[in-house]
Amino acid sequence: MIIKYTLQRLLMLIPVSLSISVVIFLVVHLLPGDPIDNLMRVGSSPEDRLAMTVKYGLDRTLVEQYLLWIRSILSGDFGEAIVLRRPVSDLIRQNLPYSLTLGALAFAFSSIVGMIAGTISAVAKNPVVEQVVKAFILLGSTVPSFWLALLMILLFSVTLGWFPVSGAKTWTALVLPVLTIGFGGIALVARVTRVALVEIARQDFVTLLHAKGLSRSTILFRHLLPHAFLPVVTILALRIGWILGGAVTVEFVFGRPGLGSLLIRALGQRDYPVVQGCLLMLALAVMLGTLIGDVAQAALDPRVREATT
Amino acid sequence: MSTILKVEGLRVAIGALTPLSSVSFSLEKGETLGLVGESGSGKSLTAMAIMGLLPLIGGRITGGSVVFDGSDLTALPEPAYRKLRGGRIGLIAQNPMTSLDPLKKVGPQIDVVARLHLGLDRSAARDRTVELLGELRIPEPASIYHLYPHQLSGGMKQRIVIAMALAADPDLLIADEPTTALDVTVQAQIIRLLSDLIRDRGLSMVLITHDMSVVAQACDKVVVMYAGTAVEYGTVAAIFDDPRHPYTKALIGCIPRGLAGAQRLKGIEGTVPSVAHYPQGCRFHPRCLRAEAICAAVSPPFIASHDGAAACHFAGAVG
Question: In the listed set B167, B184, B215, which residue is the last one of a domain according to the structure?
């Protein structure tokens, strides 16, 4: 049942991706400036410029350009970078692993620590613990990641010298970016976990679990946490895309290679095929995240499973 | 007959409020005791106090005793209390719709009780559950076992909740309004089922209800509660034949009596006072047709008679 549902959802990705590709294409092409500006040497003639424009097909109508682009995408070809003069798929293949590593680690870090913090603040009878976690949650959800990144570099790299300021040569270079991206996530996950747990603990069936003679820890781990997972999974799934998006600025601040760095550089140069390719990858990640969230929801909750399959 | 449960002068506090005081009754083995009253009269609180679950709602016992099978539960440490809950005292909750964990199959939710209290292994507990479901007149128990709560009707769910309460062969059942949330036709089935179980298994039961006709059907004794305190206590026969507290009288007067000589349904004027505003003296006096000056000043003591007691200044005279 779940497999059939997953396949259905995957099929639905096709029309959604197509509509997104139109939006991406339009947004990119409506930006002022064009990639040819970045290619022309000072003093080149209008004729040279025109030749270049024709060479990359930029003289055609937007509709024609879009159809050409989407046709090559469907055959697996992302086109060639105009400024960087390399296949876009190569560029993406080169940079994607860095983003995936960073994203996966930040995701795991924020989910695990966030759920633990949320659980502690929900069940702690100690008001001090509760307030500390609450303050941390507030801080985490309000501090912007690029600012946090700069502070971390200042403290841990410049002053203490524990981690490199930038780059991706050693694994230690991953620590600060992961912490930066993860921090906001911890706060979010902790808050959702906490609210869910407090809410569920009030329900009738929990009284009955106590009446069956189950211990507090059994009730927490076997019954309350699975319920708290439901909203947490939804949030986490949405965050898969968000983390990749958040990685854009963080990669830039830390000077790490990755999809985000590639995107920002390509944007500056108006390198249409690269920008479009990167955006499409990010959009795909967001869609897959939502899909994983929905499937996980159906796997965890029999009521959802029945309603969807 | 030996006494299985004896509650004396029970007093419960939640924060600075005392929503329950001077509740006393005793229950013999094999008997069913009805705890009746309007909502907010402290019936469920009494049940929570007996189950030792008051901390869940931020409450605590501040006076009196709850003696179960010879030992006082008010001083029982939590680990020992856990063995009692589900093991020797089973709870049937008010609303079967929300009483089961919606993410888990119903069968295993019953199994866990026998595994926990009787030390059965997984498959033995499952066999026992299926057998128990059959006993509760559930058709095709083996396939019901694998269903989720949302796939069952209210009456079915209540049977699952009853099975959970019975799974470890308890001595005492506490049924908190077990039929309130159900259809009328199903209500009768569940009450009959409970009565049969009490008889066949030699169980004792505290049956909480606001329905006097359920009391008449299923109970041996009754405690009538009003505004957090017991107002009358006695055998069902005595209470119905000769109610001595005006509130009990009024409650019985509220039972609809068929169409012969049909008239408007009777009610009791006014509402139950909230915990923060319990009146001085007798708590029923603002709604009582018989109230006199003394009722507003002095809270009436329990006046015992041959087979019961009533907390009314005129208990001897009401008739």
Answer: B167
Judged by CB atoms closer than 8 Å, whether chains meet at A213 and B86 is answered as yes
A302 closest CB neighbour out of B51, B84, B103:
B103
d(CA B194, CA B216): 14
Give the count of domains, chain A.
1
Least confident of A89-93, A186-190, A244-248, B222-226: A244-248
- A226 to B91: CB separation less than 8 angstroms, yes or no: no
Asked whether residue B82 falls in the same domain as residue B222, the answer is yes
Q: How far is A107 from chain B (nearest CA, A)?
A: 26
Span B133-162, pLDDT tens digits: 998 889 999 999 999 999 999 889 999 999
The answer to the question of residue B3 being in a domain is yes
Instruction: Print the domain residue range for A162.
Output: 96-268
Residue A308 lies in a domain: no
Of residues B56, B85, B95, nearest to A212 (C-beta): B85
Identify whether residues B56 and B126 lie together within a single domain. Answer: no
Which residue of B83, B87, B93 is in closest CB contact with A204? B93
> Residue B57 falls within a domain, yes or no?
yes
* Binary contact (B100, A300; C-beta < 8 A): no
- Could you tell me if A231 lies within 8 Å of chain B, comparing CB atoms? no
The stretches of chain B forming alpha helices (DSSP H) are 43-51, 78-84, 106-118, 122-135, 141-144, 154-166, 184-201, 212-218, 236-241, 246-253, 293-297
Q: Are residues B269 and B189 in the same domain?
A: yes
Q: Is residue A109 part of a domain?
A: yes
A 245-264 residues with CB < 8 A to B = none
Q: Which helix (H) or strand (E) holds B13?
A: strand B3-14
Interface of A with B in 183-212 (CB under 8 A): 203-212
In chain B, residues 123-142 whose CB comes closer than 8 Å to chain A: none
Please list, in sequence order, all residues whose beta carbon lies within 8 angstroms of the beta carbon of residue A270, skipping any fewer than 6 positions away: A31, A33, A34, A35, A37, A38
Q: What is the pLDDT of residue A185?
A: 83
Residues of chain B with pLDDT under 70: 1, 258-263, 304-306, 316-319
ipTM associated with this complex:
0.88
Tell me whether A1 touches chain B (CB under 8 Å): no
Structure-derived torsion over alpha carbons of residues B311, B314, B315, B319, reported in degrees to the nearest 10: -140
Residues A42-71: tens digit of each pLDDT: 677 778 778 878 877 777 888 888 888 888
Instruction: Tell me the three state secondary structure of residue A140.
Output: helix
Which residues are within 8 A (CB) of B7 and not within 5 positions of it... i.e. 6 or more apart?
Answer: B23, B24, B25, B26, B46, B50, B64, B65, B66, B67
Full domain range(s) for residue B126: 97-167
B288 found inside a domain: no
Put simply, whether B100 touches A (Cβ < 8 Å) is yes
Q: Which residue did the predictor score with more confidence, B140 or A134? A: B140
Residues in B touching A214 (Cβ below 8 Å): 82, 86, 112, 116
Q: What pLDDT is recorded for position B1?
A: 61
The confidence score (pLDDT) of residue B317 equals 56
Write the residue in B86, B98, B104 that is nearest to A212 by C-beta: B86
B181 lies in the same domain as B250: yes
Which of B146, B167, B188 is the last residue in one of the domains?
A: B167
H-helix or E-strand containing B26?
A: strand B17-28
Higher per-residue pLDDT: B264 or A139: A139
pTM: 0.82
Count CB pairs under 8 A between chains A and B: 71
Report if residue B299 sits inside a domain.
no
Q: Are residues B250 and B114 in the same domain?
A: no
